Amino acid sequence: MADGYPCPARLSQGRYRHCAAPGYGERVTEPAAPEDQDLRVWIDQDLCTGDGLCVQYARDVFEFDVDGLAYVKDGAGTLQTAPGGRADVPAHLRLDVIDAALECPGNCIHVVRADDEVEVAGPDTLRVG
């Protein structure tokens, strides 16, 4: 791929030879990385082990309640204790929240894109390795 075009037949001066395959020669835009998108997060308390790694990663987003389980909290600091309660992820904590989901021993943290609720980190994403 050269200059965002999937056509392998690049000529000089930025011109492209006609490619027979559909889509060749059309500009390709890369999807935004999760850390560049608005995200929301929620915790499945049925799976939470109470280890607290999430609180260590992002204490502005995660907090323990009296039951010893982690919950998300909104921008005002209010715990979202209802099942599936979601909170927006502040831009400066996106990578920390994603890391918390990836490292969670209970596999209970779900990080989703705010616009379409597609999971970008958590138990419903494909893990390689």
Q: How is this structure best described in words?
A:
It is a single chain. This protein is α+β, with helices and mostly antiparallel strands. It has 2 domains: 1-30, no CATH class; 34-121, Alpha-Beta Plaits (2-Layer Sandwich). Helix content is 12%, strand content 16%. It has 2 helices and 6 strands; from the N terminus they run βαβββαββ. The protein has helices spanning 53-57, 94-103; strands at 39-43, 62-64, 70-72, 87-88, 109-113, 119-121. Strands 4-1-5-6 form a 4-stranded antiparallel β-sheet. A two-stranded antiparallel sheet has the order 2-3.
Which structural class is indicated by helix and strand composition? alpha+beta
CATH architecture of the largest domain: 2-Layer Sandwich
Helical amount = 10-25%
Instruction: Tell the overall outline.
Output: globular
Major sheet attributes: 4 strands, antiparallel
Domain module tally: 2
Distance from N terminus to C terminus (CA atoms, Å) equals 26 Å
Number of helices: 2
Beta content comes to 15-25%
Count of DSSP strands:
6
Task: Walk me through the topology.
Blueprint: E1 39-43, H1 53-57, E2 62-64, E3 70-72, E4 87-88, H2 94-103, E5 109-113, E6 119-121
Antiparallel strand pairs: 1-4, 1-5, 2-3, 5-6
Task: Characterize this entry briefly.
The chain has 129 residues and is an alpha+beta fold.
